[in-house]
Structure formats: structure tokens, C-alpha cells
Write a structure and sequence with these properties.
Layout: H1 3-24, H2 48-56, H3 58-80, E1 101-105, E2 112-113, H4 115-124, H5 130-139, E3 143-144, H6 148-157, E4 161-169, H7 173-182, E5 193-196, H8 211-218, E6 222-228, H9 242-247, E7 260-262, H10 270-273, H11 284-293
Parallel strand pairs: 1-4, 1-6, 4-5, 6-7
Antiparallel strand pairs: 2-3
Bound molecules: magnesium ion.
Length: 297
């Protein structure tokens, strides 16, 4: 046996013995459980992730900017094409010929970011209520949705009227226009604000549906583009059930990203209430159960 082989044999034997020794040893006793200082449970809230995304993610800012910037790049083409109009045939109740150009924008989560209101609901474990919402609106401290003021300035420069068609109460016109101006939007006249409850002669609105107000605009403007965070910002939704909502887009798909621009809002909306049959009187547990039942594997 060479000296090298002897050394290898000694090493192998040592390793084997070490292995035997390890196996032979009694397993170390598990450490005795230590008392843990009780920590308060972190409250759960269904809107936590969505609100965190809207408020803190660069992804949200990019998504919103890309919608507004894409639209801005199309403005000149939209103005130049006299037949370019973004209202559905139902809402286009007057011919576009000769009408001045406008764009229709929703307000909440389209041009103004109300995520601090959602934060209040999360912290207080609350739900949307008109009183707390209107108090928030009166504070006039919503921030701008990324990219929206720049678009509004570009539209104003081209002589395009911005129509704020919103389900904020019409009485909130002044405070909302003040809030918009404070965060970089061009000053807006009272006539540019069409809130919930505004008079629309010849048309009686159904609840918060925006159809009458779109038709009011149709008689005064050629609408180059519409912007919103809800399907109902573009068309009247007569049946807010999941399948019926999907059919509303039929015939308009080519307009998405061209005449219609959707801003991402994962926090709330008719997409959510559609999941629990639009029954806001249901408990949160019942709403959550319905949402879980709608998930697909
Ligand atoms: Mg909205």
C-alpha cells in the first residue's frame, strides 16, 4: 500500500467513525418554548393591497401616465378628422358637424386620486358612506392622477374643452374645480362640470347613470375622447352583471386606447359590486364569500 493510499484509508475510517458517532449521539433536546410577548393582530381589510398599489407603487404611476400620454399623442389626429367622435350611437343624439371639440373625463380615480379617503376606511375599518365621502371632497386635497394635468394642459393649448362628467354631487362643482386647479389642471368654468343632479333638459337620468349628461354634451361638442375608471363612464350599463358588462364592449373594442381610455382602479367600482350582485346591504363576509365563489381555477 502506498503512503498516499494509507492516508486516504485513515481519512475514510475517520469519516466513517465520525458518522457513527453522530448517529449514535442522542438528538439534541428541542429548546423549551419561550413565552412570547403578545403582539396586537394586524387588522385585515379587503382594500389594503389595492390602496397600497395605488398610493405607493411606481407601477400605478406608469400605468396612469401611459394612458394619458397615449391619448395626448392622438389629439392632433382626432382634431384633424372631422368624423372622429367618441360617443356611442346611443349618446350621439346630435350630428357632430360643426361642433367644437371636447373631451369627457370622469373625476374620481380618473383625474383626481382619492386614495387618502380609502386609507381612512382601512384605518377605521369603515365602509363608503356619503357623509364621510362628502367631507373628504370638501377638504379639496385630492392629488392628481399621474399624467392627467399634463394631458389637460395639452388639450387646453389646442382649444379643446375638458368636460368633467362626474358622480360627485353637482353641488361639489366649486370645491372640485378648486381642487383640480390646485393640482395643475387649467381653470375650469362652471359649465365644464356636470355632476350628479345637474339639469339635463329633455332627459331624465336613471340614478347615477351618465347617459343623459353625455347626451347633453353631444348637443354641444364633438367628443374626441372619453376617460374613466368605470365602464359606466363610457356607456350606460343597464345590467351590471358580469356577463352583461362584457357584452357592453362589443362594437367598441377598436376605440379602447384610441377614443376610450380606462384608468386602472383596483380599489372600488362597479366591477366589484357586480361580483356580489350589486347588493351593498350584504355583510362584508357575504360580499367576500361571493367574490371568492367567482374565482376561477
Ligand atoms: Mg371614477
Amino acid at each position: 500500500m502506498t503512503r498516499l493510499r494509507s492516508a486516504a484509508l485513515v481519512l475514510a475510517l475517520s469519516a466513517a467513525l465520525a458518522g457513527c458517532q453522530t448517529v449514535a449521539e442522542a438528538p439534541a433536546a428541542a429548546p423549551a418554548p419561550q413565552p412570547v410577548a403578545s403582539e396586537p393582530a394586524v387588522p385585515a381589510h379587503d382594500n389594503l393591497n389595492a390602496t397600497a398599489w395605488v398610493q405607493s407603487s411606481v407601477e400605478a404611476r406608469m400605468a396612469h401616465r401611459q394612458a394619458w400620454r397615449s391619448a395626448e399623442r392622438l389629439l392632433d389626429a382626432a382634431i384633424a378628422d372631422a368624423s372622429w367622435d367618441a360617443l356611442s350611437p346611443t349618446d350621439r343624439i346630435a350630428p357632430v358637424a360643426g361642433l367644437p371639440p371636447a373631451v369627457i373625463v370622469d373625476v374620481d380615480e380618473t383625474v383626481l386620486d382619492n386614495s387618502p379617503y380609502q386609507v381612512r376606511l382601512i384605518r377605521e375599518d369603515g365602509r363608503f358612506e356619503d357623509a364621510t365621502w362628502n367631507a373628504w371632497v370638501d377638504e379639496a386635497r385630492a392629488t392628481a392622477v399621474a399624467g392627467a394635468p399634463e394631458f389637460a394642459q395639452a388639450a387646453a393649448k389646442r382649444g379643446i374643452t375638458m368636460i368633467y362628467l362626474t358622480n360627485r354631487e353637482h353641488a361639489k362643482s366649486a370645491v372640485t374645480r378648486r381642487n383640480l386647479e390646485a393640482v395643475g389642471f387649467p381653470p375650469a368654468a362652471e359649465s365644464q362640470f356636470l355632476g350628479l343632479g345637474v339639469e339635463t333638459p329633455g332627459c331624465v337620468p336613471k340614478g347615477s347613470d351618465k347617459g343623459c349628461r353625455r347626451q347633453f354634451v353631444a348637443q354641444r361638442y364633438r367628443v374626441l375622447m372619453q376617460f374613466g375608471d368605470q365602464l359606466g363612464d363610457f356607456v350606460s350599463v343597464s345590467d351590471n352583471a358580469l356577463e352583461a358588462r362584457a357584452t357592453q364592449l362589443q362594437g367598441f373594442d377598436a376605440w379602447v386606447g384610441q377614443r376610450w381610455f380606462m384608468l386602472a382602479n383596483p380599489s372600488y367600482g362597479s366591477w366589484e359590486s357586480a361580483l356580489y350582485g350589486n347588493d351593498r346591504s350584504l355583510s362584508r363576509d357575504a360580499q367576500r364569500a361571493a367574490k371568492r365563489a367567482a374565482l376561477r381555477d
